[in-house]
Structure formats: structure tokens, C-alpha cells
Design goal:
Largest sheet of chain B: 10 strands, mixed
Order of helices and strands of chain B: HHEEHEEEEHEEHEEEHEEHEHHHHEEHH
Number of domains of chain A: 2
Oligomer: heterodimer
Strand content of chain B: 15-25%
Distance between the termini of chain A: 34 Å
Number of helices of chain A: 14
Number of domains of chain B: 2
Shape of chain B: elongated
Radius of gyration of chain B: 30 Å
Helix content of chain A: 40-55%
Helix content of chain B: 40-55%
Structural class of chain B: alpha+beta
Number of strands of chain A: 12
Strand content of chain A: 15-25%
Number of strands of chain B: 16
Distance between the termini of chain B: 35 Å
Shape of chain A: elongated
Chain lengths: ~375, ~400
Amino acid sequence: MKFLPLVWRSLMRRKLRTLFTSLSIVVAFLLFGALMALKAAFGMGVDLAGQDRLVMIQKVSFIQPLPRSYQGRIAASDGIAAVTHASWFGGIYQDPKNFFAQFAVEPEPWLQMYPEYALPEDRKQAWYANRTGAIVGRSLADRFGWKVGDRVPLQGTIFRTSDDSPWTFTIEGIYEAGTQGADTTQLFFHYDYLNETRTILKDEVGWYIVRVGDPQQSDVIAGRLDAMFANSSAETKTSTEKAFVQAFAKQIGDIGSILMAILAAVLFTMLLVAANTMGQAVRERTSELAVMKTLGFTDGHLLTLVLLESVLLATVGGGTGLLLAWLITQGGDPTGGLLPAFFLPTRDLVLGVGLVLVLGIAAGLLPAWQASRLRIVDALRRQG
Amino acid sequence: MQALSQILAITLVNIRSIPQRLGASVVAIIGIAGVVVVFVSVLSIAQGFRAAMTTAGDPRTAIVLRAGTDSEMSSGLSREQTQIVKDAPGLTRGPDGPVASAELFVIVNHPKRSTGTDANVPLRGVEAGAFAVRPRLRMVEGRKFEPGRNEIVVGRAAAGQFEGLAVGSDVRWGANVWKVVGIFEADGAISESEIWCDARVLQGAYRRGDSFQSVYVQLEREDALAAFKARLAADPRLTVMVERETDYLAAQSTVLQTIIRTIGFVIAGLMGIGAIFGAINTMYNAVASRTREIATLRALGFGALSIVSSVMAESAVLALIGGVLGGMLSWVFFDGYRTSTMNFQSFSQVAFAFRVTPTLLAQGLACALAMGLLGGILPAVRAARLPIVSALREL
């Protein structure tokens, strides 16, 4: 610790270079944070998928509906803890550009199925009681400035009211993310309201969500459910929620992976550039280090000093960068509702801190080793 | 004139001496090249996607959907309504009546080659007029499907991106088995990502009754759209919206484009800042290593302006090298790269090729130059302000 002032002085030797080097490290780690948040977004929240939840869709395509009558048959099947369903609504709020997801669900079973949507008990009850009530996620509410009690008109696209007037929902609650990264950009409303009011697809639902008693049995149960509805007019495809989300995310295709690869390569280059500049700062001081050796600093001392200097620089820059990245991703989705799972996972934040230390040590190691191996006479002679 | 020749002389000296400061110069070049790679390649994705969505669109083709919908997927029209649309005046007439096609648009689960997992592949049920409405579309392999049979023709891009769609093979979606009888091309247009079959057969297979989702029509003249639109709007039996196909497709591609562009600009912007810092460092080093040289020049009578310009010019040259390098890298790696992705607005797959256009490359170079100049300002000013006497004495 007593060497800290000395390390500080060497950093301040060239204030501007230290400033710009640490700024480029800040940018590199800010980029790292953005990259990781983007990765989470492209994964569409696959890490958040429930281990014990299965998703059952129509076999041909998820846009095809399933009969509501399946619900009872699924519930009666072995190993099933709960079953509920959801339907895509696809309404337009004022302008198609204001896109957000809306689902018709069974309110109480839905919130039990998805505990990650956190809502106070009294709001829950208010929603259950109001047939035209809806709940919205925090980011969605913030996006349009909605409050509890507001009335939201949505123009139906697939589903029309009998006179084609807009569907109107009363916001009964605003749910928060119960777990990190839970999607708070959606609107949920009563399936009964949809089913009674719409003119087509009566008693059909979009897909089923099934909670199994024992997650180990997921695949067996999924197979059994699909077998149950094989050769019916609506065959099914059941998979774990994780597999379902993964398959959906994979549809983005290699664009996602290409973006990530480009960015990762560039991040790596930026780190190299920063490391190079840091190394240069040490090499420039060869004669100074020789003088210190003459004064009695040991090889170990110099090694520590130089390493400490580089780690300090990396920590200050990298720490600031990660902090900025964290602050920015707190703001959520930069595209306004298109990448709902945009957040910086804690795991990646820890990874970032590790990377900061690696950068500091890797950048300092070679010059530090050179410094400790320095022969005083050569070093003093080198500067003419 | 003298000032100019001074600037030229010093700039040449600076540029010729770049190899002596190779390490630092390479750092600046790499930093800037990186930014240009990200900028150009990310935007080439957006560019290619847009091209796939909008090229080959005939300005005479219009699409009719139910009013208040934002895509074919959520639209719905009865056979009577489609008939009224087709009978409206203002459409091209061929030997079989108006050039128009009432169509159904659904998606099917079908495995994608690159991942092996199911993707949402667009399946379009069309009428015989569909080929006339899209004049650029032509069969390149096999034949058209026969009306009333479970036969499909596959777009060239779809055949490349999804498994088992070669001519002659059978595919099974749910309870229906379809035979692939042909492959078509459409100058790289969105149709190439689709699979086509007879609309009547699709209605049956998907229990859609006698309903359609859209009508594609060919207008007599390019400017006949407004009149056609007014005519349909005046008909009390219809509540439809009419759009030129090119406008419709452009609107359908906005979401994905917004995502890609946001990512491209935010990330490239961040990196740009980082690269500017890198350039500043490099140029400070360059100035510092030449302190005595610069002071000597000043003592000989070279003006401050020439010094400033020479440093800026050096920085600009480094940036341009980086820009050209980055542009070349992205062109070599990404131009023409074929892939497919999900269009968020229709949830269905669109196959397309990345396009590194000359405009993009020029924009990349402009960015590089801007970064170089920004990075050069501070060091240049510093070089010009060096106190001559003390600088000469240094080392």
C-alpha cells in the first residue's frame, strides 16, 4: 500500500495519455456491457424460461389455434400440476408503430403459472374482478405514461368486435419484474372477454402452458400429451418452455451470431489497443526504472509496481465502463419495445470484472517482467 | 502560396516518417478499421434485408387487405369481397379476366438448415393470376403446381435455407403431405423466401372455409392507384385498405431495420469514441517524439498553421488507411452472404443476402476521416503551441 502514491505519480506522469487510455478502456467495457445485454436480448430471455413449464402449440404452426376442450384432457393427465392457456391478440394502439404484445389469458391461473410477474395482492383481485380489466408491465406503462385506472383502446386486427369498434381495456394493475430480466412490455387481459366478444374462433385458444410435477419427467409427459392428440383435427407439439424459447430465438438465425462475432472481435481489438498503450507507458520509462533499481528497489518491487500501475488503470477505466453500461441498461430496451429482454445479467457483470483484472494483468505483465529483468547498466546507457 | 507549400512540405515529411512510429500508428489504424467494419457490416445487414423486401416490386402491383390490419397475417376477406375487388375498374385485363390473385398467407413449422430446428416458413396459397401479377417471377426448375392438388413450388431462397425442399421430395405438415414440383426465382424479391400452393387446397388444409387474406392486383397504369383506392372505398360492401406493394413491404421491414440500425449506430458510435481516443493518443505520441523537430521547423520560420495542418493530415491519412482496410474487410467477408431471419412483423422467415453497397463504403470512409480529424485536433494544437526554446532544449 505504501507504494500507491508512487504508482499514482507514474500514472500522472503523462496525464493526457493516462486520461485517454483510461477513456478507451471505459469505452471498451461499456461496449462489453452493451454486448452482453444484446446477447441476453437475442436469447429472448431463454435463461428465464421455467424449468417445470411446457409449452404446447399446434403442430403445423403456432399461428394455428387449439380447441379449448383440450384443457380438461391435459389437466386430467398424469404428472400435470397445472395447465392454462394464452392467445395472441395483435391489437393496434393508435398506430402500428406502437407495437407491443397483448395476450388473452385466464387471469388467476396465469399469474400462478408465471410468478415472475409481480403484482400486489389488491391489484390482482381488482383485475380478477373486472372482466374488461388488463394488467400491463412496468416498461410498457412507462412508455405510454399509463396509470392504474386508465382506459386503453386497442383496434382489433384478427379479432373484431361485432361493430368493429376498438376493444377498450381498463388498466387494473402494473406488474413489475419479479426476477431479473422478466418481460415487462406486455399487456394481459381476460380470455373470457375476448372469447365472448369476438366473432370468429370461438372457444379456441392460442397455446397451452403446462406445469409438470416433476421436471425430470418433462420429456416423457410432453411425448404422452402429443400422443394423446395425435390424429385429431389439431395435432400438438409440446416442448419445454426453454426449448420453445430457444427454437424461437434461433429463428433470428445467424444474424444474431454474426453481430455477436463482429462485436466480440472488435472488443478484443480494443482491449489489445488499450493493452499496447499501457505497455508503451512502461517501456518509455526504462531509464527511470533503472534509476529506481540503483536506489535499491528489488526486482520483485518493480514487478509489483508496474503490475499495480496497469491493474489500477484497468480497474478505474473498466470499472467506470461497467458502471456506465449497468446504468444504461437499467433504462431497458433502446429500440422501444422490440428487444424486451435487454438487460445486463449479473453473471456477465461478474465476468466483466474478471475481464478488467485480466486486462490489467495481461497488459502489465510483459513490461513488468521486462522491468524486473532490467540490467541497470544497459538501461541507463540506452537513453542517450 | 508560400503557406501552402510549407504545409505540403511538412505534411510529406510527416507522412514519410510514419513507418518510424509504426507501432502507435498501427494501433490507430486498427481502432478505426474496427469501427468501420462494425458500421459497414451491420448496416449491410439492414441494407440487404431492405433490398429483399423492396426490390423487384413492380410499381403497378397493389395489395388489398381488410381495413385496420397491419399485415397479411391478421387480415381476412371473404370470396365475395375478393371478387368485388377483382371486378373493380382500373386493373389490367388479361385473357382470363383481370390480372389479380386472392391469396392466403400462413406459416408452417419447417426445419432450417443452419440450425436444424423448426422455423416459421411462410406458405402462400395463390390463384392462377399470381404469376401474372408478379411479372418477374419465373420457374427455374420443375413446373407450376396443378390446381386442386397437394403440390407446392418453392422460392429459390427458401429452398436454400430450409431442409428437404428439392424438386420431387415430399414434405409433411400436420396431416397433409405436399409434393415439391418446382422452384421459382423472382430477382431476389421477398417471394423467393416463400412456398406457394393452390389457395383452394390451402383453404381446405387449414380449415379456412372460403376466405382469403389479401388480393394482389395489377393496375392498368402506375398512377391509377388513387382512383382504384377511391373506387373501393366508395363500395359499401367493402372495408379494405389498398397499398402499393412496394410501400407495403417497406412498412413490413421497418421493425427489423430499426433493431439492426439502432444496434449498428449505437455500437459503432461507442466504438467511434473509443477509436478517437486511440487516435488522440497516437498523435500525441507522434508529436511528442518529434518535439525537437517541430521546434526546429518553427525556428526556421515555418508557421503554426503549417504545423497544425501537417499533424491533422497525418491523422487523416492514418484514419483513411483504417477506413479502407475496414471497408475491404467487411466487403470481403459480408457482401453477398446469404442468410435468413425472422421478420418480427409477420413472424415468418425472410431469406436475403447482405449488401455492402458503394454508398455504405463511402459512409464508412467519411466516418473514418471524421474520426481521424477529431483525433488530430488536440495534438495538432499542442504541436503548434510548443514553446520553441524549451522544446529545442528537450533531450
